[in-house]
Write a structure and sequence with these properties.
A hairpin with an 8-residue loop joins strand 2 and strand 3. The longest helix is centred in the last third of the chain and has 8 residues. The strands form two sheets. A two-stranded antiparallel sheet has the order 1-4. It has a two-stranded antiparallel sheet with strand order 2-3. The chain has three helices and four strands; from the N terminus they run βαββαβα. The structure holds iron/sulfur cluster and FE3-S4 cluster (F3S).
Length: 80
Amino acid sequence: TYVIAEPCIGVKDASCVEVCPVDCIHSDDEADQYFIDPNECIDCGVCAEVCPVEAIFFEDDLPEKWASYLIKNREYFENR
Ligand code: SF4
Ligand code: F3S
């Protein structure tokens, strides 16, 4: 899965949402960033290419300092 990390916080540009072919990137007014549903993401990578702040990474390429975002993205979808 791809993962959205810290640079999205406070930016929420949403260009990624426009290009995702499976519509698996979501947020809401209370969330400070967008999140990728790991059960729906097909690893196409187009979201990462369009994000203006380079917030999106393939899980294996996620910088170590943002490792917690793998869980943070998954948890957003757990009670929905
Ligand atoms: Fe959507 Fe592709 Fe990004 Fe996964 S990698 S969130 S399928 S645009
Ligand atoms: Fe955030 Fe970048 Fe998408 S800022 S909403 S991950 S385009």
